[in-house]
Every structure is written in structure tokens, then in C-alpha cells.
């Protein structure tokens, strides 16, 4: 149903870097729409992590960074920490707001 | 700090109408620059935007649900609401109310904690 595809899961050891991809098409990301990223801890509401491709809201550590190229976007988490273990969603637009399929990040 | 809180029945029968309210504190639903929204998440599934509204009356709906969804603002109680008609088991979800950063083409910055609604007879 989602038009934005993410890997179901990624994992890394503490201190490592993980990258989550968000693959769209020419009608969403490729059309120039911004990409946003959310972190969702178990049982909680999503939290905005990155907006407009590569901007961090106040209070979000600079360990989180976003990028976009062509029809895809990526979220990188450097210096992985135990409390980064969560579900991560990208969001863009395809005539209306659309979310990615979600990626579970596991800290080994 | 703005806070949002969903409320409404946790159980709705098939074919009936799901109604939820979002109470807003720390801001006014009638602000000319605030856009409000509903997003849902089916159990174990991803996120789905349902609708957005601004007090001027402009509304935006997910095309796949447009015929069944209504979003509205209740200025007197500083709330906004969601109605989803003719529900089925597929509408069982956690429903979040949210506020856009600015326009409907901006991210969801503030979120409620979510309300689980189960559709079952």
C-alpha cells in the first residue's frame, strides 16, 4: 500500500553507523518533494527526527542525519546507542502525505 | 509546549461510524497558521495519513478514504475531530491526532499519544 519502500530491518553494534534507505518514484521523492523521518519507540507516537530532507528539529542529536538523491532518501545514525532501538519511518508526498513501510533498528 | 490528546470509544461495531476527538492544549485550533491532522497505524503495520484541516475550513483527505472520512474543528472546546463511516475490521488501528509543522505539505511535528480503536461486533 505504501509507495515508499524501506528495508524491514537493519542492525548494528553500539557505536557503529547504520543507514536506512527510503525508495520512492518519480511521482513522490523524484518529483522533488521533501522527505521527513520519524522515530517510533514501542508503544509511543512517532517523533519527528529529520525534516525537509536534512534538517533536525531542536533537541535531536546530530548523530541523526538525512540525505536525498533522485528517487531515494537515507537516514544515517552514527554512534549507535541502545536507545536508538526503534522503528523508523520516512514520509514524503504523492499527491498527499505518504509514509514509508518502516524499518526496525536493532542494536546488537 | 503544545499537547494533543485523543479520546473516543475504543470499540466500534462493523458498519457503524468511528468518532474521535483531539483536545489541544498550549495552542489554539483556530490559529490561522495551524494545520491539524489524523494519522492511523494498523496493528503491526505502518502509518497512514487520513486527513488534515485548518480553521479557515480547508480540508484535505486521503484519496483512498475520502468518501468515508470527515475532519472538523470545534473551536469552542479547542478540539478537532475525525469521523470514519462504514467501518470494517480493516479500520482497527491506533489513531493519532497531530499538528503539521506549518502547511499540509510539512511534517507532523506534534503528536497525541494515540487511541486504539477496535472494530468488532
Mean pLDDT of chain A: 96
Range of helix content of chain B:
under 10%
Q: Which runs of chain A of at least 5 residues are low in confidence (pLDDT < 50)?
A: none
Oligomer: heterodimer
Helix content of chain A: under 10%
Largest interface between protein chains, with number of residues from each side: A-B, 25 and 22 residues
Low-confidence stretches of chain B: none
Sum up the overall morphology of chain A in one term. Answer: globular
User: Could you give the order of the helices and strands of chain A?
Assistant: EEEEEEEEE
Termini separation of chain A: 30 Å
Q: Provide the gyration radius of chain B in Å.
A: 13 Å
- Counting DSSP E segments of at least 2 residues, the number of strands of chain A comes to 9
Helical segment count of chain A? 0
Largest sheet of chain A: 6 strands, mixed
Could you explain how this protein is built, in words?
The complex is a heterodimer of chains A (108) and B (121). Helices cover 0% and strands 44% of the residues of chain A. Chain A has 108 residues and is mainly beta. In chain A, strands 1, 3, 4, 7, 8 and 9 form a six-stranded mixed sheet that branches. Chain A has a three-stranded antiparallel sheet with strand order 2-6-5, with no helix packed on it. By secondary structure, chain B is mainly β. Chain B has strands at residues 3-7, 11-12, 18-25, 35-41, 47-54, 59-61, 69-74, 79-84, 93-100, 108-111, 115-119. Chain B is 0% helix and 51% strand. In chain B, a hairpin with a 5-residue loop joins strand 4 (35-41) and strand 5. The interface between A and B is medium-sized, with 25 and 22 residues.
Amino acid at each position: 500500500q505504501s509507495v515508499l519502500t524501506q528495508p524491514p530491518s537493519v542492525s548494528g553494534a553500539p557505536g557503529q553507523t547504520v543507514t536506512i534507505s527510503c525508495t520512492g518514484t518519480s511521482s513522490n521523492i523524484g518529483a522533488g518533494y521533501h522527505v521527513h523521518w520519524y522515530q517510533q519507540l514501542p508503544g509511543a507516537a512517532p517523533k519527528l527526527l529529520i525534516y525537509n530532507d536534512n534538517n533536525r528539529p531542536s533537541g535531536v542529536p546530530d548523530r541523526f542525519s538525512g540525505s536525498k538523491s533522485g528517487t531515494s532518501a537515507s537516514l544515517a545514525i552514527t554512534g549507535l546507542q541502545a536507545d536508538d532501538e526503534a522503528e523508523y519511518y520516512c514520509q514524503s508526498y504523492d499527491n498527499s502525505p505518504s509514509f514509508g513501510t518502516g524499518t526496525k533498528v536493532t542494536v546488537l | 509546549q503544545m499537547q494533543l490528546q485523543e479520546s473516543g470509544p475504543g470499540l466500534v461495531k462493523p458498519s457503524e461510524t468511528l468518532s474521535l476527538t483531539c483536545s489541544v492544549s498550549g495552542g489554539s485550533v483556530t490559529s490561522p497558521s495551524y494545520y491539524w491532522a489524523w494519522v492511523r497505524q494498523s496493528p503491526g503495520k505502518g502509518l497512514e495519513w487520513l486527513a488534515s484541516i485548518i480553521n479557515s475550513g480547508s480540508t484535505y483527505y486521503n484519496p483512498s478514504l475520502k468518501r468515508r472520512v470527515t475532519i472538523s474543528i470545534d473551536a469552542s472546546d479547542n478540539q478537532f475531530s475525525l469521523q470514519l463511516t462504514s467501518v470494517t475490521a480493516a479500520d482497527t488501528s491506533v489513531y493519532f491526532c497531530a499538528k503539521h509543522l506549518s502547511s499540509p505539505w510539512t511534517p507532523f511535528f506534534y503528536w497525541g499519544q494515540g487511541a486504539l480503536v477496535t472494530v468488532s461486533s
